[in-house]
Amino acid sequence: MLQWNLRSRSARRRRRPEIKVEPLEQRVVLSADIPTINGIGNNLNNPDWGSTETELLRNTEAEYTDGTSSPAGDDRPSARVISNTVGDQESDATNDRYLTDYVWIWGQFIDHDIDLTEGASPAEEFNIDVPQGDPLFDPNGTGTQQIPLDRSIYEEDADGTRQQLNQITAFLDGSVIYGSDDVRASELRTFNGGKLKTSSGDLLPFNEAGLPNAGGPSDSLFLAGDVRANENAALTAMHTVWVREHNRIADELAAGDSSLNDEEIYQLARARVTAQLQAITYNEFLPALLGDGALAEYQGYDDSVNPGIANVFSTAAYRLGHSLLSPTLLRVNADGSTAADGNIALRDAFFNPSAVTDEGIDLLLRGASLQNAQELDTQIIDDVRNFLFGPPGAGGFDLASLNIQRGRDHGLADYNQARVDYGLEPVSSFSEITSDPILAAKLESLYGSVDNIDVWVGGLAEDHVPGSSVGELFQTIIADQFERIRDGDRFWYQNLYSGAELFEIDNTTLADVIERNTDIDGLQENVFFDRAVLRLELADFGTTQVEIAKSGQDLVISDRVSGSVLAVAAIQDLKQVVIVGTAANNERVTVRAGAAAAGLEGGILFYGSHGQRDRLIVTGTRHADTFVVDGHSVVLNGSEVQAFHVENLDLRARGGDDVMSVRRESAAKIRMFGGNGDDRLFGGEGWDLLSGGNGRDLLFGNGGNDDLRGGAGSDRIFGGAGDDFIDAGEGHDLVFGGRGADFILTGLGFDIAFGGPGHDTIDGRTDRRRVAKKPPAPRSGEPGSGKSDSDSKKHNRSRNDAPPQVAKRQELQSGESAKQHRSDAKSEQGRRRTGRGRA
């Protein structure tokens, strides 16, 4: 069981905040311009930006076959063939980051807040050819079957190029709740106390006005701000929660200030609900999907930023959620048992209001917190790949085929061109897209060339960015889009609210909103992650240094500065521990050997914040340990600890004869400290610090400009390639500088030092030394020498005589960070900034 130390939570968010609206804040919000329902006028200089019925942005090259209108990909296989080849999911495959069903439920909910592109009128067929003998769509082998699809609504730009339209507002403005046109917005209101309409059971109202709705205008379907509210029961449940939240806030406003009229209450509640939608999306959802730190920090409203939706975002990248869908919606009682009527298959939850009216929303919302979503990859569950909205041949569709075909309809750039257009390096082989050789072979058999891949398929096929559930291209596209939505919104919540109100909004979680508006209690604090994930954000505790250790059968997280315990959790209840850094520098997470070896299924993760000197420190046992750096991970005796966006990875042995090595290079600086014992330390190809400590140690710098320190004991040190600094330390040491311009400092003892190829400096420091020179070389000034006298002689200087860059290094104490003396060897830091949308 997880326990938070309440005495240490003064800076931590308060769970279930009951937001109280202050009269002053009410007047500030009401005195400001109120955002229009259709988004017009948000940007005073460009009033149409982000409004309804505007063109999707072309952030990538249009690849229509005829240059202006004919669908792309006429030389590619049928979308159904591609779906059958790479999209067929034969078994359950839950994601490896413990994301729950809420990641796709919320993802769909906010997608319906920011983009909608319906079919053209009159309709233009662009049907999908079904391969002959398709077991579901052509079981009789006619070879004439098609999956129906109409092309999207569009306008032609000044060049005559077809540009599709976004029919709702691009802003994350709650239009999914309130609508994007005045008719729908008005029909949803009671005009009494600022509240929205509901039906029996405090559910969504039915479509008694016969307004346009996906699934038809029938009054048996619910009415909501977006026409797609009935698409599945989980989505309908989420809509219901937010109508209730609006009405809860409206009641609170009315009770707190009797002078407010209906319109004022409605607008104040709408602003508050929108603020919460924005905060949850950016504080919880996007970090869960993209990984922490994927978006740039908010710098305030920028009227030069167009928040419009990019075509490649809505038509390809953000359709990644279709891969996350679970085949079953769990319906769970308060005691954890399955509801009397059982769970519901997703294929049976489409346009099925009875799944909500008969059982309510609590069972579905509780179940979503208990089930992990599928892995994000090219594979799609049968419920939407073969049974979308009905069985094959009887109204059913293949969602994977529809996504591929829609991208071609919109003339989207191919996968590699999209990478180039978003500032990424193009790939030259299928193995660069995915490390799965079977998938790479399938892609090659379908497309032949990496320059002809449908962007939705290529984006899903990419290996995930470490610490994320998406590949590089989709992470870049989605981050760019959500940065522009935020930065280009004059009514963004951080511009409207301040002080305590802003604090409360920023710290409202989706779990808070659900529990306030249902009979559900006991949800995990972050419902986007499995409840067995312990996620601790340093900003919540006002600290930058924590330690994770094992105590009995518990994991204990403590503040290294104050010593206070921040969290305690039973190991048997945990699958993963995640530590999230702040914007501060010099953040340190220390993982003790017992914690690393606790056997957590998902291990321990630390997300730094790209700050300077952020550091993961992994300490060993008092026995012989094996440390391996594997990219962004440190593996201690087979147990993995991962770090992202950090400057340093520190490996610290405590005793025994330890082995430290690099399997895959890391973007971070690697520092190895052997401690007591006869240790073997092997650096990587970049800059490393290797410190042997006490004992007879063996140090290999390998590539890079390394800092190697033997310490006490008779050590063997090999610098390897690069311009290395080597301090032999005490004892009878044997030193080989290797290739490069090395500086070798021999220590107290009978040392032997070989400089190796390159312009080396060997400093003996004492009278008790023996230096083995390089093989005889031409005298200075002789043909072929290429050296001055000082290059070809052994240098016997004091520390004060050493070159400045070396003298500075000599001042560093063993165990402390060494600065690199050549800028071209510094590790690349910082993250890539994504591009802005083009109008």
From TrEMBL:
Protein name per the record: Hemolysin, chromosomal
Spell out the Pfam families in the cross-references: An_peroxidase, HemolysinCabind
Which residues are in coiled coils?
A: none
The alphabetized UniProt keywords are: Glycoprotein, Secreted
Entry keyword Glycoprotein: yes
Cross-referenced CDD domains: peroxinectin_like_bacterial
Q: Does the keyword Cell membrane apply?
A: no
Q: Which portions of the sequence form the region Disordered?
A: 63-92, 755-839
Q: Where is the composition biased (Basic and acidic residues)?
A: 818-831
What's a GO cellular component annotated to this UniProt protein?
Answer: extracellular region
Q: What is one Gene Ontology biological process annotated in the Swiss-Prot or TrEMBL record?
A: response to oxidative stress
Provide the protein's localization: Secreted
